[in-house]
Amino acid sequence: MKANRRTDPNLPQPKRRHRRTEEELIEDLKKKIAFLEQRKQLRAVKSDPVLKLAHKLLRALKKAESQFVSLGRTDLANSVKASNVQIRSCFESPA
């Protein structure tokens, strides 16, 4: 007689499937919707040259801030950080 997984304790037991509940499915769909909305916004940024340049400006300011901090120039780092916050607030959508 051939041994199967249920009768032979030496053989590995089959894995149980985890069936997601409706709440888990809803949460996963909400996460997917949020990801798709974020991707939609990124595509809008790629197509709009002003937003693309603003994003590059914010990255350059962030890099400058970290360089000023490493040089010990906290006064310049603080002014760059304030500029970064001000520019970021101009481009954030009022939601």
Radius of gyration: 26 Å
Multimeric status of the protein: single chain
What are the low-pLDDT stretches, counting only 5+ consecutive residues below 50? none
Mean pLDDT: 84
Estimated helix fraction: over 70%
Distance between the termini: 68 Å
Helical stretch count?
3
Helix and strand content put the structural class at mainly alpha
N-to-C series of helices and strands:
HHH
β-sheet strand percentage: under 5%
Globally, the shape reads: elongated
The biggest beta sheet is recorded as:
none
Question: Total number of β-strand segments?
Answer: 0
What's the arrangement of secondary structure elements?
Elements: H1 22-47, H2 49-71, H3 74-91
Structure notes:
With 95 residues, this protein is an all-alpha fold. The protein has a domain at 26-91. The chain has three helices and no strands. It has helices at residues 22-47, 49-71, 74-91. Helix 1 crosses helix 2 and helix 2 (49-71) runs antiparallel to helix 3 (74-91). The longest helix has 26 residues, at 22-47. The radius of gyration is 26 Å and the shape is elongated. It starts with 21 loop residues before the first helix and ends with a helix. The mean pLDDT is 84.
